[in-house]
Amino acid sequence: MDSATSETRTAAETRTPLGASAENGLKIVVVGGFGAGKTTMVRSVSEIRPLNTEETMTQAGESVDDVSGVRGKTATTVAFDFGRITLDSRNVLYLFGAPGQERFWFLWDRLFSGTLGAVVLVDTRRIDDSWYAIDRLEKHGTPFIVACNDFGGPTFTPQQIREALDLEPDVPLVNCDARSRESSKIVLITLVEHIRSRYADPARASRQELV
Amino acid sequence: MSRPGRDDSPDRLYTLTGGRSRSGPGNPFDLVTLVVAEGAPVPGMQSEHAAILRLTERPTAVVEIAAELKLPVSITRILLSDLLAAGRVSARHPRQAAVPDPDILEQVLVGLRNL
Ligand SMILES: Nc1nc2c(ncn2[C@@H]2O[C@H](COP(=O)(O)OP(=O)(O)O)[C@@H](O)[C@H]2O)c(=O)[nH]1
Ligand SMILES: [Mg+2]
């Protein structure tokens, strides 16, 4: 435990602290299959080196909050990484890279309730990796866009990708290169503009309440 | 470097938190709640509590604290509720609403465009 504390001290020395007036944390989640480029995108726009952390849950899917209940049970761990963008003196945006696999979604509400929206990052060589994530985001009513990360594989027309993903027509679809800061920035701007127009349109907003 | 918390057996986590369960619905700490220390660590304090106070001299999000301490988020939230109850930290919770405040969305857009 002593070694953990001294590691923490070392980490603290290399940290980039927020300004003293920071008071409002915001969340955006980048979700996608293994190797889709989530960590790369977070790193491209983050002001800190992406950090990795985890949440633990028991087999039944409940989190580890009742620690005594976990004793003797097998705990499953879901890891995710994140970066940070200071927007202004008060607002800080946290960008999370989260795996799209099934067990992760047990923890979605606990970790990402109140999230502004999500980017579904798609590797077009493995399009079916993102079906589950899109399904869950639709069910949660979380605004999202789809970003196809360019790995230099076969190119598909937007129409082919929309059909393969069974996307609603109003969900924005963009191409990106997660290694590029400018490209990743455009992805995030596209998402926030989509969120804004979605909540500005009363017809969309009330339809969402019905879900 | 190993993934954080990999070697944290449930028994070690039990010891850290005294087996209490306060990260459930009653726990106010969101992943992005910004935590600020109200003072320096004092001698004899649990080492994790002291580490949190050192980390939070400036506002620091719950998820950053968990990552730096290499502890699961839920355990970090329990440690933070101890410190909050003792008045040793203050918490700046996210201003979340069912529908995001249009002014906040505008501020996010301005901030992103300035990146
Ligand atoms: N060609 C290319 N490679 C990329 C791109 N984005 C990520 N990669 C590479 O793909 C690999 C997996 O990316 P990573 O961000 O770790 O994926 P994650 O599992 O979703 O976090 C890494 O080697 C990246 O350098 C991209 O836009 N184009
Ligand atoms: Mg990754």
Shape of chain B: elongated
For the record, the CATH class of chain A is: Alpha Beta
Terminal CA distance of chain B reads: 31 Å
Which ligands, by name, code or SMILES, are bound?
A: guanosine-5'-diphosphate, magnesium ion
Rounded Rg of chain A = 18 Å
Low-confidence residue ranges of chain A:
1-12, 206-211
The major beta sheet of chain B can be summarized as: 3 strands, antiparallel
Order of SSEs of chain B, N→C? Answer: HEHEHHEH
Topology of this protein?
The complex is a heterodimer of chains A (211) and B (115).
Chain A lengths: L1 H13 L9 E9 L5 H8 L5 E8 L8 H4 L4 E12 L4 E9 L8 H5 L4 E7 L7 H10 L3 E6 L8 H8 L7 E4 L4 H20 L1 H9 L1
Parallel strand pairs in A: 1-4, 1-5, 5-6, 6-7
Antiparallel strand pairs in A: 2-3, 3-4
Chain B lengths: L9 H8 L16 E4 L9 H9 L4 E2 H8 L3 H13 L3 E4 L9 H12 L2
Antiparallel strand pairs in B: 1-2, 1-3
The structure holds guanosine-5'-diphosphate and magnesium ion.
Guanosine-5'-diphosphate (GDP) binds next to helix 2 of chain A.
Offer a quick outline of the entry:
The complex is a heterodimer of chains A (about 210) and B (about 120). By secondary structure, chain A is α/β, with parallel strands linked by helices.
Describe this structure in words.
The complex is a heterodimer of chains A (about 210) and B (about 120). Chain A is about 35% helix and about 25% strand. Chain A is of the alpha/beta class and about 210 residues long. Chain A has a single domain, classed as Rossmann fold, CATH 3.40.50.300. The longest helix of chain A is centred in the last third of the chain and has 20 residues. Chain B has about 120 residues and is mostly helical. Chain B has a single domain, classed as Arc Repressor Mutant, subunit A (Orthogonal Bundle), CATH 1.10.10. Helices cover about 45% and strands about 10% of the residues of chain B. Chain B has a three-stranded antiparallel beta sheet with strand order 2-1-3. In chain B, α3 crosses α4. The two termini of chain B are about 30 Å apart. Chains A and B meet through α1, β1, β2, α3 and β3 of A and α1, α2, β2, α3 and α4 of B. The complex binds guanosine-5'-diphosphate and magnesium ion. The site of magnesium ion (MG) has 4 residues of chain A, from α2.
